[in-house]
Amino acid sequence: EAVIDNGGETIVYQIVLGKTETVNVKLVDENGLAYGKDNISLAQSVRVVITPDDMYPALKVQNNTGFPVRISEPRGAWIGNGQYAVVFQGRDQNVGVSYSSGSFNYKKDARIANTHAVLTLTENDRPPVVNILNNTEKTINLVYLKNSGPNSRWEGTNILTLNLKEDGTVENVEAGSHVGDRSGSLTNKETFSFWLGNLKVSPGSYDIRLDNTQGDSYVKYNVQINNGETITFTPKDKP
Questions:
Q1: What is the DSSP string of the chain?
Q2: Is the pLDDT reported for residue 191 higher than 60?
Q3: pTM of model > 0.70
């Protein structure tokens, strides 16, 4: 084993020929990526040059979701939007890629043959962005969302207090709003957008509740949310 600087040091090995007439040369860089050449003839002295083109077949994950993702399997990596990471090297294999986007966990299957492969994640591979339109004719100051189900309770953060930054993270998360509090309000005809990945929920259907400043509630049950969809609340949504 030896450390070889890029474009620099040359390592000379002497191999006594016996039954071995060919060898495989493999280099591993500081990121764990492997490069090499196989079946090199030892019939005479030979100089082996390893270049980036000699990288072993690799599976690259390209993140085009609009938000950061974190890969957990097969190799851990944090990938910002518009960036990529190599998560596996091998030949002729099916590869399961596990990752998280916000609070959601996903698994995708990929195939790597004898050449490089790319798994591209798009906006369909992460939690959706949701738009809430207030047509209740009242000012809303509390918005809650939970997974649908008989044992699911209204709890967690008032979504109106979530400030979404460009990288998908949240700042100034507060759950102190209460009935009569006009801070973080949603006036009539106003639309509020948020990323579902910022909430402690799982993929599925959802119940959404809006409370106005008088303490009245407007509720929709078993909502299937698509990315960019606008969900409109009206006076008819009072229970």
A1: -----TT----------SS--EEEEEEE-TTS-EEEEEEEE-SS-------GGGBPPEEEEEE-SSS-EEEEESS-EEE-TT-EEEEEE-SSEEEEEEEEETTEEEEEEEEE-SS-EEEEE-GGGSPPEEEEEE-SSS-EEEEEEEE-STT--S-S--GGG-EE-TTS-EES------TT--TT-B-TT-EEEEEGGGSS--SS-EEEEEEETTS-EEEEEEE---TT-EEEE-GGG--
A2: yes
A3: yes
